[in-house]
Design goal:
- With about 725 residues, this protein is an alpha+beta fold.
- Among the domains are: about 345-420, no CATH class; about 425-540, Macroglobulin (MG2) domain (Immunoglobulin-like), CATH 2.60.40.1930; about 545-620, Hypothetical Protein Ta0175, Chain: A, domain 2 (Alpha-Beta Complex), CATH 3.90.1070; about 620-724, Helix Hairpins, CATH 1.10.287.
- Helices cover about 45% and strands about 10% of the residues.
- It has 35 helices and 16 strands.
- Strand 13 (about 600) and strand 14 (about 605-610) form a beta hairpin.
- InterPro entries: DnaJ_domain (IPR001623), J_dom_sf (IPR036869).
Length: about 725
């Protein structure tokens, strides 16, 4: 693996180098000129988690007396965010290497010991490291202990604390039987001068300096000593008194004294430590009033910051059939029980729901747990879903498991699935929303759109991703299928993974394409916009749709029927349909009657249809037209005429002549309705014939067999000449 084209790393070394990186600092460090000539494994260890080139620079400047491993240990922890800044004239960047170089000559220390003291050196710790080496207590601390003490030092407070504590140790114990280094570090790591003040305030003369230091370790004032004086009359065990008052505050001491007498002193400390004043006590009393066991209430209220929230949580959790220990794990210390209860309600029958929902602030972890693949309903499920905002981690894991052979869950995969942002991969129209099965010209219609994520799972409800916020939207573009120009647009925001498009209208019949895209708040494309397309068949009117639906039904049925007795009455044909068959044609009755069919329904549901025989001939053809020259079934002129696209002029004349003998309006004798229908059919035939001739003229094509002149549709009926 080559990084920036400068240094080649093995995959393992590269992974070790980049694990946990927050920027490209590890790569910059590893490929810098300062790291030239180093082993790959050493570079990976030195530069892991580096913010810039500072560790490599430190390594290069380290004293030559150190071996490679010692140099790596010295510089690996160096983080200098301002390493790239230019220095003022005469200024020197302070690094662990500079720290070693400027180390005071006394006491005389070996290079390895100096390296340990300078390991965490920065400009802020420079005075502490220097002075600690000169101080009388300095020799009592190891190099690592000096580094820890100084790294936590604020304005020299920890260093001054160490000097005073060291003096106390020497004055009271004479240095016998006391681990000075451990005592100093325990008392003063990150502390201030209050440790010394606290030790001086302890009035128990019988206590050793070790006892006083344990009581006052990291104290921020004299309150631990005050706690001892307030409890000394009730607690006579010195060890217990030190245990109770270590790290005490005023509120903590009040909580200890107000605790119920039924509780032991150790139980009181457990209850009050970390809490907000006397709230743990009030929480305990609330739990006992609600019938909770004493030990359960103790565990729930320890360190509580809310009086009622842990108790309400415990009472609500019981309805989800979890064990006593799980109740405590779920509800202890929670400031708000609503999130935990919502999480449990979503997780339902997941075996690890108690571990997943502990500390939940909303239903997100439970939503994630509910979608877990059965193979992950264990520790992996907890790692995936605890603290999750939605179901995305479980979607990701299930997708990986289903998609890849030999897939196994690992820490890296869990991290990937937890950190990968959710995005919309596609939209899916649920259904066209309108009154019937068709969309008509000028009639409003709509659709409901669902969003799906990259794992083909529908985004809905609390599972909505950041990309589904209300400031994002979906835009509908409508255009004819055979036209690239966009039609009207609608801008509708998604809400919880759904969008509703209403009152969409199209002003032209045909097949229209409706395309949906995700757009940003200002109309710009968002990252990886998702698209979906549906096709809408738009018809001119509802009546013409009935023609398409009902005319073939009438004709098809009549081809299978024998005329009913008496069907020659008044020149009409009569058919009888039984109730079972007639029920299929109920939507078409209005259409039949408009076309001259008399429909009579008799008791029992049977129907009688009376009609002229010519009507069937009119409906039998696929040339039936909804208007002059506009055909439902056929849109190409050669299909209307029933010929091949490359038909010759002679073939066209023959077909036109044959069709005219059938469809000329003069051939229809039954009233104006039939003549009108037949006339429109004949008009469509004539238009198709003319269009085919124009195609031949445009190509300069005389046909397969040749031809002469330019043909036009005859002005009179073709049968007129033969009759003459």
């Amino acid at each position: 693996m080559t990084m920036h084209g400068k240094k080649r790393f093995s995959v393992d070394d590269a992974l070790r180098l980049c694990a946990g990186a927050v920027n490209d600092g590890p790569v910059a460090c590893a490929t810098s000129s300062y790291a030239k000539g180093m082993r790959q494994s050493a570079v990976s260890k030195l530069c892991a988690r580096a913010l810039n080139e500072a560790p490599a620079f430190c390594y290069k400047e380290a004293p030559s007396g150190l071996n490679a491993d010692a140099k790596v240990d010295l510089c690996a922890s160096l983080q200098a965010p301002r390493f790239g800044d230019e220095l003022a004239e005469g200024e020197e960047r302070y690094t662990p290497a500079v720290c070693m170089r400027d180390f005071p000559p006394a006491p005389r220390l070996k290079p390895a010991e100096k390296a340990r003291r300078c390991r965490l050196a920065t400009e802020a710790t420079r005075p502490c490291v220097y002075n600690a080496s000169l101080a009388s207590f300095g020799t009592a601390l190891s190099g690592d202990q000096v580094a820890q003490l100084c790294a936590a030092d604020v304005d020299g407070a920890s260093l001054r604390c160490a000097g005073k504590v060291h003096h106390q140790l020497r004055m009271h114990s004479g240095g016998d039987g006391v681990d000075e280094a451990s005592a100093v570090l325990a008392a003063c790591l990150g502390a201030d001068e209050a440790v010394d003040a606290c030790v001086r305030a302890v009035r128990q003369d019988s206590w050793s300096i070790d006892d006083k230091l344990r009581l006052c370790a990291r104290a921020r004032g004299t309150r631990p000593a005050v706690c001892v004086s307030e409890l000394a009359r009730d607690v006579h065990d010195d060890e217990l008194l030190q245990f109770l008052c270590a790290g005490a505050t005023a509120e903590y001491t009040d909580c200890l004294k107000m605790a119920p007498q039924e509780l032991s002193w150790k139980e009181r400390r457990s209850l009050c430590s970390g809490g907000d004043g006397v709230i743990p006590i009030e929480c305990y009393e609330e739990g006992r009033r609600n019938g909770l066991a004493a030990n359960t209430t103790m565990a729930l209220c320890a360190g509580a910051w809310s009086v009622s929230a842990p108790i309400k949580c415990a009472v609500g959790v019981k309805a989800h059939k979890v064990g006593k220990n799980e109740v405590v794990a779920l509800c202890r210390g929670t400031p708000d029980e609503t999130g935990i209860l919502a999480c449990l309600a979503e997780a339902k029958n997941v075996p690890t729901k108690a571990r997943i929902c502990a500390g939940a602030r909303d239903a997100g972890p439970g939503v994630c747990a509910a979608d877990l693949h059965y193979k992950f309903r264990n520790t992996y499920g907890v790692m995936l879903c605890k603290g999750a905002a939605d179901a995305l981690p479980s979607h990701c894991a299930s997708f990986q498991q289903i998609s890849f052979k030999g897939f196994y869950m690992s820490a890296k995969m869990i991290q990937k699935c937890r950190e990968e942002p959710e995005r919309i991969a596609k939209f899916m129209p649920a259904k066209l929303l309108h009154d019937g099965e068709a969309v008509y010209t000028g009639q409003p219609f709509g659709t409901q759109i669902w969003a799906y994520n990259q794992y083909n799972v529908r985004i809905e409800g609390s599972r909505s991703a950041a990309g589904m916020r209300g400031d994002d939207s979906v835009v509908a573009f409508m255009s004819p299928k055979d036209d690239v120009k966009l039609g009207g647009t609608k801008r509708i925001p998604f809400r919880e993974g759904e969008a509703f498009f209403k009152d969409l209208t199209l002003d032209k019949a045909g097949t229209w394409e409706v395309r949906f895209e995700q757009r940003g708040p200002s109309g710009e494309d968002v990252e990886q916009p998702a698209k979906t397309t549906i096709f809408v068949q738009v018809r001119p009117t509802r009546y013409e749709t009935l023609v398409e639906l009902c005319a073939p039904r009438l004709f098809t049925f009549q081809c299978l029927q024998e005329p009913y007795d008496g069907s020659d009455h008044l020149g009409l044909t009569m058919s009888r349909w039984d109730a079972r068959i007639a029920a299929m044609y109920l939507p078409c009755i209005e259409f039949f009657e408009d076309e001259g069919v008399t429909v009579v329904t008799v008791p029992g549901g049977d129907m009688y249809f009376l009609y002229h025989e010519e009507l069937l001939r009119l409906f039998a053809t696929g040339l039936y037209s909804s208007g002059a020259g506009a055909f439902h079934y056929f849109t190409e002129p050669w299909k209307v005429l029933g010929v091949e696209p490359d038909a010759t002029r002679s073939e066209l004349r023959k077909v036109y002549h044959e069709l005219s003998l059938v469809w000329h309006p003069d051939r229809w004798a039954h009233g104006t309705l039939y003549q009108d229908r037949a006339g429109r059919v004949f008009s469509g035939i004539s238009d198709a014939y003319g269009a085919m001739l124009e195609r031949l003229d445009d190509r300069g094509d005389k046909g397969r067999e040749g031809g002469k002149g330019k043909d036009t549709p005859p002005a009179e009926a073709p049968w007129a000449a033969s009759a003459a």
